[in-house]
Amino acid sequence: MRFVTHVGFTTAVLVLTLSAPIVGAKEEKTGWALVPDILARVEPPTFPKRDFPIADFGGLGDGKTDCKPAFDRAIVACSKAGGGPASSYQPASGSSADQSA
Q1: 3-state secondary structure (DSSP) of residue 26
Q2: At the N or C end, where does the chain have fewer CB atoms within 10 A?
Q3: 59/67 Cα distance (integer angstroms)
Q4: pTM (2 decimals)?
Q5: How many other CB atoms are there within 10 angstroms of residue 75's CB atom?
Q6: Using CA atoms, how far apart are residues 86 and 91, in angstroms rounded to an integer?
Q7: pLDDT at 41
């Protein structure tokens, strides 16, 4: 009987020790509590001040002229200036620039 009491007492002490918080230990952050620390480490990107007005590349804002070639030229100029890979501008479906008929 003494062995069973000793095992029971040892088990109780072990459970209480493992479940009690350690004095002076920091509680580990999880989930949304991590956001401020993550944001503090993030360095926002910087972009050079460059503008590529479509009008400078032949675009007209008259609602009639197809400005896709002007957009294409502006995109290429932006790419050559270090603004990323050149690609083509595709107007949104149903926009006035998309009406070819």
Answers
A1: coil
A2: C
A3: 5
A4: 0.45
A5: 19
A6: 16
A7: 95
- Residue 48 and residue 82 in contact, taking contact as beta carbons nearer than 8 Å: yes
Sign of CA dihedral 80, 82, 85, 89: negative
Can you tell me the distance from the alpha carbon of 11 to that of 7, in angstroms, rounded to the nearest whole number? 6
Could you report the per-residue pLDDT of 60-97, keeping only the tens digit for each? Answer: 989 999 999 999 999 899 888 988 666 665 665 555 54
Q: How far is the CA of 26 from the CAs of 1, 15, 22, 57, in angstroms?
A: 41, 21, 9, 60
Residues in the chain: 101
Place of tokens 């002229």: 65
DSSP code at position 45:
P
Band (59; pLDDT cuts 50, 70, 90): very high
